[in-house]
Amino acid sequence: MTTTRKSIHGVWSSRLAFVLAATGSAVGLGNIWKFPYIAGEHGGGAFVLVYLMCIAVIGIPIMMAEVMLGRRGRQSPINTMRSLAQEAGADPRWSWLGWAGVLAGFLILSYYSVIAGWALAYVFRAVSGAFTGATAEGIASIFERLTGDPERLMAWHTLFMIMTMIVVARGVRGGLEKAVRFLVPALFVLLLLLDGYAMASGAFDQGLQFLFNPDFSKIDANGVLIAMGHAFFTLSLGMGAIMVYGSYLPERASIARTSITIAVLDTIVALLAGMAIFPIVFVNGLEPGAGPGLIFQTLPIAFGHMTGGLVFGTLFFVLLVFAAWTSSISLIEPAVAWLVENRGMTRVNASVVAGIVTWLFGLLTVFSFNQWSEFHLLSFIPVFKTATVFDLLDYLTANIMLPLGGLCIAIFSVWVMRRDDSLQELDMGDGMAYRLWYALVRYVTPVAVIIVFLNVTGLVDFSRLLGMAG
Ligand code: TRP
Hints:
Strand content: under 5%
Mean pLDDT: 91
Distance between the termini: 51 Å
Number of domains: 1
CATH architecture: Up-down Bundle
Number of helices: 19
Helix content: over 70%
Largest sheet: none
Shape: globular
Number of strands: 0
Bound molecules: tryptophan
CATH class: Mainly Alpha
């Protein structure tokens, strides 16, 4: 039996087109903005190691599962989950997983767009020469003037949302495929250039030490959860983005090879970004745990002092905007695909509706950096003592919703779906590779996610248990 479903939204022109689009979704602010700042906040090396392990044993298998479900279902995640549940004789309420994904996508895009707005603003700062010769304090004040002003943040957020909705409205083939082809290679080149600058800065070793020398006393249960959550976030997993992209994937394309390629590229970009940023942090006496402003307060120093920095700095922030752009469209695509399928909307109308809702939510993040910066909704919980609304949104989505979504995807793929069906859809033969995938998704992923959750709630203290065993 072969699958006969066809996507009403079209199909990628080739496997390469899918690889490019999925890589575009994966590589984004998560790699260049978020990874360095959370690694900095959680002590570096040990955090990075946990993150890399999560990419390998959770991220890649879950990515394969998500692409597989998408390609088999060929619809928006909501309808895909319902069809596949029926096919497996399971409860149609599995479609709720699709709903949770749509919600997560809205919430993530709402703050993602605000941060992407910072990158947009920085294109203009860079090209006007604002960074040239500036000191670390000068750069910090440029950042604070931007984030302290809700009107400016709102304007850039609005602009970025409009950019996103224009591409989404044009659809899979028309809009999504084009940009990534030159974007990822160009981003690589610029990051290498920044790494070259960092290498000459005098603190490159210190930066490498910080990133790659694990000191497990510096990471706690919450840090482990954040590292795991980030593995989902950076690969765009757990909310249906990769599922919906998979639904546009041509019949014969190796899901395993594709997933590994994407994960490797994504990881390289993150590590290159970290290797550029931390030497600059240390040589300027800055704080690795400075938070969400980290790259916006460090990289401009490099651009302000290198030859050609005006051009490279401008180019860098342009590329960062593009990277964010190709990610943001995947955050909203599940919702738009559903509105088209179930509400009979045109893609244009669906995009407008989804865009307006997301924009409104984004205001929560806009105010988190100024008016509400001292408002700590959950300050009675120790880990959220100084968390702003933005911090909470990020935590809820990346560290709770995505891993839970991933857990459900894992359970569905190997406990609910028939083995024959996943075997057929992954199309890699019943050999070692398939069995490894099956075992990872069946046991390792669910157990890992559950342990990390239990550990962070303090219900079970695994480090104590391990200590006692050892
Ligand atoms: N992976 C993107 C990044 O690293 C963000 C992103 C796009 C995402 N689509 C997603 C995160 C879906 C979670 C789920 O910037």
